[in-house]
Amino acid sequence: MNFSDAEIVIVGAGIAGYAAAIAAAKENKKVLLVEKSDAIGGNATNSNAGTVCGAYYRTFSETPRLAGYHFSTDFINKLLPFSDNKKAINYHNGLFIIPYEWSFLQENLEQELLENGVLVMKSTEVIRVKRNKKQITNLFIKTNNQIIEISPQIIIDCSGNGIIAQLAGLEMISSANYQSASQIFRVQQVMSDNEFSLNMSLKKAMLSLIHSSGLPKSFLSLSVVPGSLKKNQADFKITLPEIITDDKEVNFKLNIKAKTYVEEIFPSLTNMVGSLKTATIATIFPQLGIRILQRSMGKYVLTETDILSCKKFSNGIAVGTWPIEEWNNDGKLTMEYFAPDAGYMIPSDCLLSYELENLFFAGKNISASTKAIASARVMGTCLQTGYAAGKLASCSSLESRENMITLLNRELVSNE
Ligand SMILES: Cc1cc2nc3c(=O)[nH]c(=O)nc-3n(C[C@H](O)[C@H](O)[C@H](O)COP(=O)(O)OP(=O)(O)OC[C@H]3O[C@@H](n4cnc5c(N)ncnc54)[C@H](O)[C@@H]3O)c2cc1C
Questions:
Q1: Is the CB of 411 under 6 A from ligand 1?
Q2: What pLDDT score was predicted for residue 262?
Q3: The whole model's pTM is what?
């Protein structure tokens, strides 16, 4: 397939873009997936989020129950045998998560895209769009220093920040600022096999450094990504004190500053934490982990109330099971829970542009309030919204789309 033949273009190859591409390809569509960076996976691999959240219902029973489609369950079942524990780990307060190795995930996403005939263009960025009253008519993509114009029938925006709606001048869902960002880095020669005691030592060292050297309070958040301590290496996550806004230039500079922060504090850690005495930094993951940015406005905006009341919609096309999770600028984490063994539904209208007929959304770019996306942004949920967007975008008429919504909803309800 040539890129100009694409019927559906998916913007952003994060976990949502991957799911959307596979779903559309399985409906025999010609799919082009464009990704601005040089790698597949978005936050999941380039920031190394490190664990899949939101794949299971929160529960206090021994065995957690998977939520969502067969597609998302299959994804998890493929991942599990390769995670160290071979099963989900009980992280906190009935929440189950699956640690994964970023390189394994990246290879598998890429392989599956290839096997399903999806054309993937990396280092390729959508920079401009042309539209009429009802549709996006053309996309301008920059690749190899060339600008190419294409005119797909459908666009699924999985960019994580509603880039297509922004470029089309549509109304966005935004806030003056968002929850804080974190930088993840891998450390080797860690002389500990106990995550809890390593976390305690990190806290103690950071507390002392914050008092003695005036480091920002948010650095007290420094901790091991759950399940990542193995074979004398671990992934560490640190929250930055900076305010996150939609300003692209500021965020670009912050991505660089985050690496400097890590390089500056690490020598003190090796002096203060016994098990890090000979430790070195193996990798500072390339993409700063910005959790939330602006989103596209859909036909419905998912709210905090929908989430906390576990609202069901007859056009529900994804099940959210993760609480509202927010990190503030002091590195403090707040979780707002809903009932255990329950989930809320995301209606299909959160995936459809309020104005343009051929524009769909998925992942952390769905139409949701800033509070609501703090729950729906986790990978278990992004997989489902991505899958649903791919399916809906493949329908040739409004009637077949309605039928598809019914089918998707039935599958979710029968798996509840
Ligand atoms: C620090 C941190 C820790 C996290 N921890 C967890 C966790 O433990 N478990 C969990 O489940 N979730 C976690 N998350 C959330 C989760 O990783 C993300 O919300 C999820 O992966 C988002 O997927 P996505 O596909 O919607 O977007 P993204 O992963 O952001 O992917 C969007 C992609 O679009 C590309 N793009 C953007 N603009 C353009 C353009 N103009 N043209 C082409 N491509 C473009 C980007 O380069 C990117 O690759 C974490 C997030 C952060 C930041």
A1: no
A2: 97
A3: 0.97
